[in-house]
Amino acid sequence: MVLDRLIQNTKDTKHSLFKASGVWLFSFVQYCSHVTEVHQRLREAQASFMRLLSARDDMVQETASRGLTLVYEKGDEALRTQLHYRFDPNPNVQRSMNNIWKATVKEPTAILNQHFDLIMEDLLKNIVGKEWRAREASCSAISDLIQGRKYSQYERYYSTLWVVSLKVIDDAKGSVRKAALDLSMVLSKTLVHTLESSSENTSTKAMMGQALEFLLSDKLSGKTTR
C-alpha cells in the first residue's frame, strides 16, 4: 500500500526521500482522511510527522507542523491527549506542539480533567520507553500535570510515580536524569504542601501512607542518591 511506503520513508536518512514522503503523507491526511484505511492510521501518521518535525529543513518542519495540525483536527481526542510531545527536548518540536495544542484544544483544562487517566497512563508508559526524548518529555509533562491538582486526582498513581521517577534518575542520558530529579522534587513538594494543608485531612493521611509505604519498601534498594 502507498501509505505503508510513505510512513516507512519518513524513517529514511536520505533527505530528498523523507522530504517528499512528508509532503505526500500530508496530502493523504488532508484529502483522504475520510477513507477508513487512512483514518485508522492517523496515529502512525502522527508519529511520522513527529519525526519530520525535528528535521533541520524549514520546509520539512512546516509540512510536519501542518500535518500534525490536520491529524489532531481529523482524529479523535485521544490523539490530542499525548501530552509528552509538548515537552519534547527539541525546541522546534516543543514550540510547534504548543502552537498546535493552543490551536486545536479550545478548553485545555476541561480536556485534561476529562482525559486525566488516559494522559497519565500514556505518560507512565513513555517515561520508561525506549526513546530518551519520550522519557525526558514524560518526566516534564507529569511534573506539569500534577502541580496544582488535588492529591485525590492522582492518588492511584502516586506510588508508581515515585517508582518510575527514581528509576529514570539512573538513566544513561544526563538531561533525562535531570528531568527525573525535577519530577522527584515536584513529588516531594506536593507531599509537603499536602501535609501543610489543613483542609484535606483524608488526602493527607492517604498520601503520607503511600509515601511511607514506598520509602520503607525494597523499591529503593539499588537506587542512586543524587
Automatic annotation (TrEMBL):
GO cellular component term of the entry, any: cytoplasm
Gene Ontology molecular functions: molecular adaptor activity
Protein name: Proteasome component ECM29
Gene3D superfamilies xref list: Leucine-rich Repeat Variant (1.25.10.10)
Repeat among keywords: yes
InterPro entries associated with the record: ARM-like, ARM-type_fold
Gene: ECM29_3
Source domain of life: Eukaryota
Naturally occurring in which organism (per UniProt): Ceratocystis fimbriata f. sp. platani
